[in-house]
């Protein structure tokens, strides 16, 4: 957050909303339209070996860590949507309270998001750290897909959430996720970046992307507006690219070198529909949505097909909604009407849903209070947050 943004007035804000993404961390205040802080969910640490006496260990979070990528290894505390390094995760939360939002955590409730099918021990660890380390007064843990659905003004539907580390198709009925029908893929945006690196390296012998700094450059190429896109018909698009140069675009690298990006533009995101391109044996995103719906009771399938919500940064490719419409319509029974919803703000749709939920008059009653935590301990999360 820039220095000219004033610290928040705690009297005016009810709840902090934190969306714990594998690639991007989003934080802000309930009732607002967008997160105040968005930064990479990464940590870089320099352990002092005595060479620089008195300096101690140096820790960098988010953009500061990204800027050190050439000299320090980057660590991702959230892998495939699940926290794997709690010390680094705690560092991200501390950075958010102190540097991004500039609030005292002891004064405000916190809404935390979690991936579908988050392990029970992880849910408990989240609330334990919040109460024990940050001394917050209350918290609530919400499933990311359910929050994304809130933005569609409906409580029944299916959310395809694909971010940086994980892709999930989560059916939701009357506000409750249906875990037994949820489909999960452990590939998403980070894997697409790796795939694009491979494609670019294969196509040009004079330009090799290999370092972590190069990886960030390729990630920026992938996310450049209107560069990568999903083809409505992949084979037809491939034939067009082979016979014409009209699909080629130029991209200037930080060192001034200009590269040409051709069929990689649509070959990269095609892996979402054909994971075999990345040597992954898995169904495509359209197939996991279909399988998830078909695993639900027949009585609710019509409602699910009619409200398929796309969420997460890896659903931001132009053309993805039209392709999903085409593919799922082909798979679904002919009697079903298929509707795809792809809001323009879907990159932080989960956070917006959290902002909506935490603004409800009933939210304070939903939360785990400090007194309840002290009485029951971390397992209270399973009774109050579901």
From TrEMBL:
Annotated keywords: ATP-binding, Cytoplasm, Cytoskeleton, Hydrolase, Nucleotide-binding
Substrates-to-products reaction catalysed: ATP + H2O = ADP + phosphate + H(+)
Keyword Transmembrane helix part of the UniProt annotation: no
GO cellular component: cytoskeleton
SUPFAM superfamilies for the chain: Actin-like ATPase domain
Subcellular compartments: Cytoplasm, Cytoskeleton
Claim: Nucleotide-binding is one of the keywords in the record: yes
Superkingdom to which the source organism belongs: Eukaryota
Example of a GO MF term: hydrolase activity
Main location: cytoplasm
The family this protein is said to belong to: Belongs to the actin family.
Name the record gives this protein: Actin
